[in-house]
Design brief:
Strand content: 15-25%
Number of strands: 20
Bound molecules: alpha-D-glucopyranose
Number of helices: 16
Helix content: 25-40%
Distance between the termini: 59 Å
Largest sheet: 8 strands, parallel, barrel
Structural class: alpha/beta
Radius of gyration: 24 Å
Length: 543
């Protein structure tokens, strides 16, 4: 367990190290920013697909709402909370794995791809969730974990016991422990082989030993996984988050971004297209590699390699250039007519955003406002909108600190359960909860709600072009989002101190769509104002 903790902590550190460096050179003094620095605006292509205009919300059913007092969240509990998403303004829900599982990796060890974990309910409960979600205009995405199964999956049990049988080659077996993956170690430490006493051979796994890798060399494996996908689509699921798709196919020691992976993703794309469903991949690729995953016949959405850390580093260092350059690079590599990237400030593998920025309320706000105004489909991780703190109770590993029960109200167990919660609640749930924060128009929750409403009602912020301007100082990120329905000029200040802005604008007067107060004056085609610390302005023409 200690080794697991160390590996995961290392994962965090690595991610931080991978974040772009700060801007070099002294900043200009006068805050003057000119479009001429940015070159011609990129071409505009409208994308009518619903997810380009939506905000997603990731949650763990186990932690969201218990309905029967056993201390574990379940599907009926989630269904009873659906109005919350409508109120918050999110449209897509990504559910972490809901399948039967021994929970050696919180459900990412799947024992049955076409069932529901008994703790969470039944297939009928899933059907009810889908019906009720659709009635509210919400879409439900399940987590497809296809790189590996659980050791408890009947496919693995059969493969173990019958090497020459039909599933004998469904996993990666060898007489000797072979080599692992080249380059970076696997996410959970070194990639390894584990000896299986039943079969008298070693099997390969990129994650925990409880998660044997499936062999994508086997056509029957690929067919079986496509059938799983069809099963859920036929039941009404709207799409999928793909778990580590870049690791599906391996030719040791090469484990990532292999041609076989892309072939299988194209097959998945055909199946999902038949149902008008979409996928978001945990692609964790460089901008160039991500561009390949977002080709028109591969994925509709993919997460960035640097994930949340580009936002954290900007807030921690009060320096925005690294974030700006990372987004520039991804935008440049994203095919115009293909998929789009997706952004996060946190997720179930990362520390809580509050832990990442030392619980600085201004940092949380500037990160959220930037995420909601940049291109890329935003995914909010449950509790982020409350500024939930890290928990201290671990079951599987340190990632549990960001998986504590959702905080609904100031009552016992924050309204999550009437029983004993399976994982201790995070500190300060008496104040950091939906009921308390919703009553305060200045709270982080209310800010999130305004931000989401602003994004989803402003075409410039969803599908509008992105063009970054050279920053007036190190702490500031300035970018155009341009759309035929109206342009927006966003100025984000990651620093604590205020920043003078002097921007060329085509308007006679400007208005900040996020704040109430006037923000500055336009004179001779230039807008001049003092952008307060940890603040984002979303500027447009004043009516
Ligand atoms: C992904 C998941 C993570 C899981 C791993 C193995 O990275 O996000 O939670 O442990 O895959 O399935």
């Amino acid at each position: 367990m200690l080794r697991r903790l160390a590996c995961l902590l290392a994962l965090w550190t690595c991610a931080c190290d991978a974040a772009p460096a700060a801007d070099a050179g002294p900043p200009p003094e006068d805050g003057r920013v000119d479009d001429a620095d940015a070159g011609p605006p990129p071409p505009f292509v409208e994308d009518p697909r619903w997810f380009r205009h939506a905000v997603f919300y990731e949650l763990w059913v186990r932690s969201f709402q218990d309905s029967d007092g056993d201390g574990v969240g379940d599907l009926p509990g989630l269904t009873s909370r659906l109005d919350y998403f409508v109120e918050l303004g999110v449209e897509g829900l990504w559910l972490m794995p809901t399948y039967p599982s021994p929970l050696a990796d919180s459900g990412y060890d799947v024992a049955d791809y076409v069932g529901v974990h008994p703790d969470y309910g039944t297939l009928e409960d899933m059907d009810t969730l889908l019906t009720e979600a659709h009635a509210r205009g919400l879409k439900v995405y399940l987590d497809l974990v296809f790189n590996h199964t659980s050791r408890a999956h009947p496919w693995f049990v059969e493969s173990q016991g019958d090497p020459s049988g039909p599933r004998g080659d469904w996993f990666v077996w060898a007489d000797e422990a072979g080599e692992g993956c080249e380059g970076a170690a696997g996410p959970f430490g070194s990639v390894r082989w584990t000896r299986d006493e039943t079969r008298g051979q070693f099997y390969f796994h990129q994650f925990y030993p409880e998660q044997p890798d499936l062999s994508f060399d086997e056509p029957s494996v690929r067919e079986a996984l496509l059938d799983v996908t069809r099963f859920w689509l036929d039941r009404g699921v709207d799409g999928f988050r793909l778990d580590v798709p870049y690791r599906y196919d391996e030719d040791l020691p090469v484990c990532v971004h292999r041609p076989g992976t892309f072939d299988f993703l194209r097959s998945l794309r055909e199946v999902t297209d038949e149902h008008d469903a979409a996928m978001v991949g945990e692609t964790l690729a460089s901008p160039e590699e991500l561009g390949r995953y977002l080709a028109p016949d591969v994925l509709q959405m993919g997460f960035l390699l640097a994930e949340a850390t580009i936002f954290w580093v900007a807030a921690q260092t009060e320096t925005a250039g690294g974030l700006g350059r990372a987004i520039d690079a991804v935008v440049a590599e994203t095919p115009l007519e293909g998929g789009t990237f997706a952004t996060v400030l946190g997720n179930h593998d990362l520390q809580r955003t509050t832990a990442a920025v030392a619980d600085d309320p201004g940092a949380l706000r500037v990160m959220a406002a930037t995420q909601m105004t940049l291109p890329g489909v935003p995914f909010v991780y449950y509790g982020e909108e409350l500024g939930m703190l890290a928990g201290g109770d671990f079951i599987v590993d340190s990632r549990d600190s960001a998986r504590t029960p959702m905080q609904w109200d100031a009552g016992p167990n924050a309204g999550f359960t009437e029983g004993a919660p399976f994982l201790a609640l995070a500190p300060e749930h008496e104040t950091r909860n939906v009921e308390t924060l919703r009553a305060d128009p200045d709270s982080l929750w209310s800010f999130y709600r305004r931000l989401i409403a602003l994004r989803t009602s402003t075409p410039a912020l969803t599908t509008g072009n992105y063009q970054r301007l050279s920053s007036p100082n190190r702490s500031t990120l300035v970018y155009w989002r341009r759309h035929p329905d109206g342009d927006r000029l966003v100025a984000a200040n990651f620093g604590r101190g205020s920043a003078a802005l002097d921007l060329g604008v085509p308007w006679e007067a400007v208005r900040d769509a996020l704040g109430e107060a006037p923000v500055g004056a336009v004179e001779g085609g230039r807008f001049r104002g003092e952008l307060p610390g940890r603040t984002v302005w979303v500027l447009g023409a004043a009516e």
